[in-house]
Design brief:
Length: 655
Amino acid sequence: MKRMAILLVLSTANLSAGWKIGKLPDWAQSYALAATTEKPPEDAEAWVLLDRTEFAYMGHGEIRRRHFRLVQVLGEKGSGEAVYSLHGLGGNASRIKKLKGWNLRPDDTVTKVDRDDLVLFDSDASGKVSTNTVSAAALEGVTKGSIVAFESQEIEHLPMGAVAYAMPMETYPVRHWEVEFAKDGGWFSGVKMPKELRVAGYHFAPWLQAPLFQAYVPIRLENVPAIPKHESALPNGHNVLPRVEVVCVDDVDGLPDLKDWNSFARWVAGQYHAKTKAIAIPGVRGTGVDALRAASKWMSRELAYKQVYLTPDRGWIPEESNEVVRKRYGDCKDLSSCLGGAAAQFGLKAYPVLARIMEGRIEGSEALHPYLFNHVISAIHLDKSQGLAAEVETPKGWFLLVDPTSRLTPFGWLPSEHRGARVLICTEDGGIWVQIPDKALAPSSMIQRLEATLDATRRMTGILTFREEGDAWGLRSASLLGTRKELEKTLLTFLDLPSNAVTSLGSTSDPLDFGKPLEIQLSLQVPEALFGEGRDLVLQNIFLPRPPEPIQKLGVPRRFPVHLDAASSRTFDAVLTFNSPLAPVSTEQMLETPFRKTSWKARREGNKVYLNFRQERPEVDFSFSNREEGVKQQRKDRSAIKRLVDDAMSFKPAT
């Protein structure tokens, strides 16, 4: 479980010499006083004067932490909000033991909080049932001009071992940031020495000068910048923002072996082996990969993805395979356990594969940290290649990678979330790192075909057919999980229809029939679909992509690298029958930038015009050193695609 950063949304003005700094706790006074002699950062809603963490290992997988935070409020937006919170696993796994808070207001009055009975909130999102909670307390009367201080005592006993994780950069700039290994005594009485204490830091350049990362050596940073605002097209923070990781290696029953990757992988494999029992899948007979393919299809139809964690360790330990079949639901671990049980029934061996999706990528230089991973898939050991796309060859032989949570991905492929990822196959002999090849990813594309007529009033009436390969636009998901009304609503999010347009959902094909694209028909009527613009007539751009928003404000230096994930290919074909002969202004164009490769063709036959638009969107990466070039190229791309689409939608009377 990742320890969430403290959320303090505050607002304040400059300190003045008249403030009674002595009303703050002793540890905060020197930092608050120093702020009176410095100019606060510009354009910041708050200034963190101190963020200090002391922590110690107490043995048996337990970490104790004391956290000090002092904030000067600068802006109105955070007025009235001063909240300290900790996201925990519930029970005794992670909690705030004691919390004190001070709000020194501009009028020299102080409001306080001093409690150990913190309010607990259920932190579960939709589709999740767990013991997870948020411990929180709030100070009253925080306003512009306040200084807010918090001091907490926290306990963490995490199911995957005693670890600490911190990211110095946050929403607000930080004047002093410190992490220190506590000495024995007081709150930390009974400090234990783990067998090994590992400290690692990542991605400090170019943001900060990296300190010394060494066991029991304090980490201190000055003038930590805020995470830049108003930038988009960003890589995930895991791969570009500074972070510190601390791992306590110890021998504790029930906790993973964190000595090295092989030891950790063996522990993970053991957890799954204990939960994976051979199971019979209803209606599936035979052996080998063909039987497993049938079992996977049954799982796609019959098992729902759902997180039910009634004990803190369930976020990492799978349910027994037979229980998953009985309950008809499970999360990624449970569904992998179920697939492993089916594999055992068919004479195959499955192994858990630890992965990270949608939260950055695991880099080759990263040291062992059990919370790097947020997803589990399966690796089926093969005697030889079966010619499937998601097969990988390793020093330990051939494996077929399967993501049983992806109900809409055909067997033998992986969903696009795994693009470029490094995953760890966990076996009884150790770990096998694998780079997911692009060929393993399931094809993903969208083809729209429009057949429409435009009458003398310029009303367009037609049928628009969507042909989706994979789950390119999420239509398979919407078709499978929602009602027809919800599906139509999803379709309309991809069309820029005027408010007076009329639509009606037509036929839809089976979203679980992977042998052919999902096909959905939508009838539509658009009044005044053509409008005059100078000497040309312009068709409302309902179907082609709009120019992307700028990723950076003009005149503001770029701080982040520029990154965009690859997108599904997109094709639009149309046959338009006009009331009178109209010719396309643009008959053919090509556009190729780092952000897209696009083609446009149009031709006329009598009153009919045939249109074809095709676009590929590759992954885009401009590094820190080349980020301004990325901004420049995105502006060029934005202008170029706007010109192409404007030309493509323009027509003139045929001669």
